[in-house]
Amino acid sequence: MSSTDNAQGSGIESSGWDRGSRGFAGIGEREAQQIVGSTDADEHRRQVAETAEAAERERAAHERDRASGIGVGPSLDNPLGQRLTDGPLRGLALNAAAAGKVEHRLDEEHKHLLGLAAGQRDGELLGAAWEAATAKQAVPAIMVPALEFDRSTVPLTHPTARRAGLVERMREHWAFENREAVMAARKDIEEILGRETIEILESAVSAYRTLVDAIGETGNAEAVIADGRPEVLAAFQEWPRLVARWKDANCVRVWVVLAESNGFQERHPDRLFRTETQMLEREVWTSQFVGHEIDVDTPEAALAWYAERETGLSITAHAGVSL
Which region, left, alpha or beta, applies to residue 285 given φ > 0 means left and ψ of -120 to 50 means alpha? Predict the structure, then answer.
């Protein structure tokens, strides 16, 4: 049988089938170029839009960094924050554990309810009725218990929708309890922060005085080696550790303030609500020294500002370098 006969026998018009599989074969070259050109233009516009969005995100991140100090943001993810979460803020972990248990229970019930359907007792009830009938006994009720089972057991609302609503309400409560935990621990948090900052500042003043007296600055390794004195080397090694601790202290400070003022996200109760907080973060950053408002960008510059004020020794005067 020829291919033509086969096509006719099957009721398929082969020439039409072939046309359908040729794609752009029926489109002129000019039209095809217009389609490709349009696609390229769309892709270009998409890339331009994505680039603009990325630039805006970067600008917003820079502005936020500038507001709260470069490298400083609300966080307990540091040694000082760990001391707090292990101590006065341990309620946060307890809340998270409770939320996990509640959600696990909801998941179990959700799975169970998804397996329920109307009529699941029908076979059992009909079997009991049949056995009673063949034994020449009174036939027990069938429809009444069947409908009662359906009414009392099968959920009227879809389990998935019901679970979502319950999880949402539970997380709202979790966010509320997290803020309450922070408020309740505020006094203990302030005491720990106070001891930490006093210790950092006292050590920073000492290290700064040693370094500026010896080499005129805090970050010149070659000058430290050339000086050769052990106390200068020790101060040089201590200074960046103190800067890191000061950064951590400021991260914790801004975290506590935002937790108290804004609270936690209801959809993600383990995260702070951080919308339109730039002015508040800036206020926390500039007021890190009681009675003074500073205008520097980094934790190191802030620490050096304080040490210079306490010692009267200026890096600028010694080395001609501005903080």
Answer: alpha
